[in-house]
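User: Some background: our group keeps a shared notebook of sequences we're curious about, and every so often someone picks one and asks for a predicted structure to add to the entry. Today it's my turn. The entry only has the sequence so far, pasted here. Could you supply the structure so I can complete it?
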Amino acid sequence: QAQLAESGGGLVQPGGSLRLSCAASGFSLDYYAIGWFRQAPGKEREGFSCISDRDGAIYVDSVKDRFTIGRDNAKNLVYLQMNRLKSEDTALYYCAAGALCTTDTTSWHYWGQGTQVTVSS
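Assistant: Of course. Here's the predicted structure to add to the notebook entry:
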């Protein structure tokens, strides 16, 4: 019964910070690549960050230098620290576990339910 669950979303002002968590149950995250995806209304789900033993931590340019992905192995979770948030970061945020870091959403084994991030003044 492998499951992922995101938490930590909410409403934040532009320029603010938010820390998301992706907690695993039923399996150990340290054997998987963990990706973060987001989907705004009317838009496709897009991957923007991933962490794996093979690739380390990777980011798309739009979040590089603002977001940080990391692991907390003792708690079997992955976090996403988001700083200097912008209105265009507003989306439903998902984490996923799979074999490799890839933008192909069909390749991921497990998905969380999503957590809403809204950046607005």
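Suggested note for the entry: The CA atoms of residues 50 and 56 lie 8 Å apart. DSSP finds no helices and eleven strands in the chain.
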